[in-house]
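<goal> How does this chain fold?
<sample>
Here is the protein in question

***
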Amino acid sequence: MSYLTLEVEIDHGRVIPSEPDQLPASGKGLLTILPAAGGNTSVPPKRTPLEALEALQKHLHLDDQKVAAWMATVRDARR
């Protein structure tokens, strides 16, 4: 299995590859968004691991019941 990473530009929601010749005729891929040159390069505040976990749970809209169900699923998958 081989992987291909290409540089792209985004213009109003359209992804424009810098080297379109390297793109396959069809396929799926992942896109990593990098900050634009001269853009906002502020560093997010440092968080403790617990603060980071709480922020992630809030972002994913996980309440205590959903967290417990997820933990049970992971625990069962490891058996």
Observations:
- The mean pLDDT is 79.
- The longest helix spans residues 64-77.
- The chain has two helices and two strands.
- The longest strand covers residues 8-11.
